[in-house]
Amino acid sequence: MMLEFDYTARNDLGEDVVGTISAPSKRDALHALAEQSLFPLQVESAQANKSPWRPVRRRVSTRALTTNLTQLADLLDSGVPLLRSLRVLADQAVYPELARVLGAVHDQVADGRPLDEALAQHPHVFSELTVSMVRAGAEGGFLEDALKRTADFLEQQDELKARVVGAMTYPAILASAGLTVTVVLLVFFVPKFAELFARLEQRGGLPTATVWLLWLSNTLGSFYGVLLLVALVGLAAWLGRELQTPRGRLLADRWRLKIPIAGSIFLGFALSRFCRILGTLLRNGVPLLKSLEISSDSTGNRVLAQAILSSAENISSGDTLSRPLAQSGIIPRPIMAMISVAEESNRLEDVLITIADGIDRQVSRQLDLMVRVVEPLMLLIMACVILFVLVALLLPVFEMSTALG
To answer: Least C-beta-crowded within 10 Å: which of 89, 194, 297, 389?
Structure first.
């Protein structure tokens, strides 16, 4: 009996391919994809995907994931076989989703699949970076060290993410409060002056600011306001779907780098990840081309990843690393100068780690500066909006008082 399976796989060009394949079982579907030179990322039953009762996959916290990666490295370092280590971790997992995933990874490894391919079947838990590091560690004979370094890196990124979220919480609260106050004023407060403004308009007209305020209030409080809200929700949903596609993620990453102040911070995050992972892989003896392929997945930015992969193609034809990277125009010149000198002195792996540490310090300073700029900017915008509403409300009254006087 042939079954239908929906799959997401990656071809030899590094592109994601989505489709459906017929096979007697999921294992046969995986083998069929491998024969087509496709690396499966996700394979699921088509009938399960069509079911309205499809279980929701819950994300696993980074802290739980890093703990299990470290424990797996410790078990392997102590001589415990891989299958037994995976079973132990699955049995002791606190989160049900993590226990289910580790159990599935154990079963796939028991069926003869490599560990990295088994992890790649669960992209909602294991990122591309984790899968690539595990693959490099298994091929290079330093799997335990790769697991520990991946755990450290993920924990560091989680701490940085928490810091960014904490830093932007207050500006986000200010923006939400300002938007709420403005909408309440326009929808509920301004209409109470409609009758007064109507009489004033008959006598001599209203100021331009008041006319704009009344138009905005009437629009938001009418059927058109509901349509506008529905349109904004639909636009947000469409953008969310588009950002899940390779083209949408590439465009989003390109525009993200162009944001004033924040763009340099995003680029710093990506460069730090690239340099740290590349330096770690080179230090463990992974060939340069393979290291570039893996570290490109760690950047988190498609634009930088494309530049790295393009440089790898030039390196395969005999060029140095620094030359094609410099031609991309993305990496700052001081960093490129350090990479060029490191290549000449054969100290590239050590210098890359040093560059990553320096970028982290610089990004930290830029992040603090951005927070100090955003907070007063949000207060200023709120003050300007509320001042506009008050002036538009009171200006006709002042003009009428002046005329009567």
So the answer is: 194
pLDDT at 55: 41
Q: Which residues pair with 43 in a beta bridge?
A: 7
User: What per-residue confidence (pLDDT) applies to 137?
Assistant: 83
At 341-392, the pLDDT tens digits run 888 878 888 888 888 889 888 888 888 888 788 878 888 888 888 888 888 8
Secondary element (H or E) of residue 400: helix 348-404
Report the distance separating Cα 369 and Cα 358, nearest Å: 17
Indicate whether 229 pLDDT > 60: yes
Query: Which CATH number is associated with domain 62-156?
Result: 1.20.81.30
Measure the CA dihedral 105/108/113/119, to 10°. -20
Which option is the CATH number for 169-405: 3.90.1300.10, 1.50.10.10, 3.90.1150.10, 1.20.81.30? 1.20.81.30
108 and 117 Cβ atoms separated by less than 8 Å: yes
Would you kindly state where each structural domain of the chain is located, as residue ranges?
Answer: 3-50, 62-156, 169-405
